[in-house]
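Morning!

As promised:
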Amino acid sequence: MSAIKVFVPRDSGALAVGADEVVDELQKEVQSLGLTVDVVRNSSRGMFWLEPLVEVQTPRGRVAYGPVQPEDVKSLLEAGMLQGEAHELCQGITEEIPFLAKQERLTFARMGITDPLSLADYEAHSGWVGLRRALTMDGAGIVQELTDSGLRGRGGAAFPAGIKWRTVLNAPGQQKYIVCNADEGDSGTFSDRMTMEGDPFMLIEGMVIAGIAVGATQGFIYIRSEYPHAIAVMNQAIKIAMAAGYLGQSICGSGKSFTIDVRKAAGSYVCGEETALLESIEGKRGVVRAKPPLPALEGLFGLPTVINNVITLASVPIIMARGASFYRDFGVGRSHGTLPFQLAGNIKQGGLVEKAFGLTLRELLFDFGGGSRSGRPIKAVQVGGPLGSYVPESQWDLPLDYEAYAAVGAVVGHGGIVVHDDGVDMSKLARYAMEFCALESCGKCTPCRIGSTRGVEVIDRITSNQNKEQQVHLLRDLCNTMLSGSLCAMGGMTPYPVLSALNHYPEDFGLEIRGTESV
Amino acid sequence: MAKKMYDKSQQHTLIHELIESHQSMKGALLPLLHAIQEKLGFIPSDAVGEIAKGLNLSRAEVHGVITYYHFFRDEPAGKHVVQICRAEACQACGSNELLALAENILGCKSNETSSSRCVTLESAYCLGLCASSPALQVDDKLYARMSAEKLKKILIQLETAQ
């Protein structure tokens, strides 16, 4: 009889709550019982409130136990965990857990199921199918397929990926580059991290397809220094893919070449802006470039460059494997496909929810998230990262799609959702948004560099009741200048959290409650 | 994390070797600075001239890059580095209170080192553990769903284990 398979994730989100310690304890206990188990360090299912989530392979499917701490291991084994028996930590068959069962996992289809660095696992779960199809097509055909899929940039700006690729395809240049933006600095987001730690071959496959499509032979992945595990896994995966011929001089024997280098960022938030990122890879300060020229025409080292977010590139393999219309049929309006939403902050069931565009924030917060972790009423929800608006309850029933959110002065962004309960003081969060902008501004344009510091001062005067009415007027004026006068989203969107806090929660600024104004 | 200590001449040799191994790389400055900091724990300010010369850059460019990026240090950190995430998701779960507690226990502010030189306390802006806030990092080890009691234990252990 072969050893029983037990899965304990290697994702940072599991390691940070003791997954390694659980594995050590499990091995020790199993050994003392004279048994052997085959422990697989899989990726995370993205149900972080249950991490460390231990799964056991049974004839009924995988049975989940979580959150498991080392001291629980003994009682779990005694209860018959290895046979999938009941225990107070038993969550039943993993795939039947409602949080997972209700999702539409396309990009995250393998997440939690496979060993991230096992090529055999990747192949067994539809890996490289998209690449093999792409190798039978010409560049224009691949770009057309991507365009038809309706995929838009998942980093936040939501620019149609196909148009970007076509510009690079048609740009003259001896050398072109594919750059993956893995500088996922937004609070409340971790889907890029999960992808790199949990399904690195998918990202590699997406980048190789991009290279074949536009005629680029070199790729770079720019990963934040705060993600050491992602950097390590990507580097290992690149080595493995290289040895197996999925990267290198002749991909799958096609004669087409593509290589990938990982570049480690150095803690600058603004380097998530695409032109600042290119400057950083070139070895300079991460200062934003004026556009035009577009990076598609004059990007990295002045050459035509596709620069896409991790999730954008990671969505490419399934689009190529299943076809444009399969992907396009998910979603609503002009927001096609799925988005990995990330439930974070003060939420009971935090984690990753991949769903087609069009569901509502209320569904995410309550049907998936189960309400606040503290048990108190949810007061404000920031959608789309630190530069996204605070969305009040009156807007929780809007469909989550790019256009519907833009219409109320909010953004879907990279899909990060940060929940605050009624203990939060929104004037403090507005101040923090300005403070963060002051800390992270690259300094190139005045509205962002100076405006953010003045913004902190003005908010301080409002909350300390100095000339309040005039200062509110000044804050709005300042935000208007930043919105329309900044070079990039750093200064241009910092007003979103500030004004949405002011408009929807005036009482926190010591102002009378009145009808909400839009940003 | 505490790095091996090198004397000035060893530092010089090491930096020289690293410059040589990075010279042919495109956009070599950040990878080189990472490599130096990885070995020494910081980037000595007297290495700026040599780095500039080796990569055919101006001293101003090299200095500009070192000081622009939060990650690079121009002096050694304490024996341990504790980074507490202060981004919104962690704030929603009490990270500001954890930072205040750490400042209190260590007797230093964020971005300072405790008087024993044992712990450098820093603010981080997102460790990517936002679904399990509050999060922090001690050297290479990540912690999530942190509580005041657990943090107190960790910090006291660091301060007394030296």
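Residues 446-463 of chain A form the longest helix (18 residues).

Hope this helps with the figure draft.
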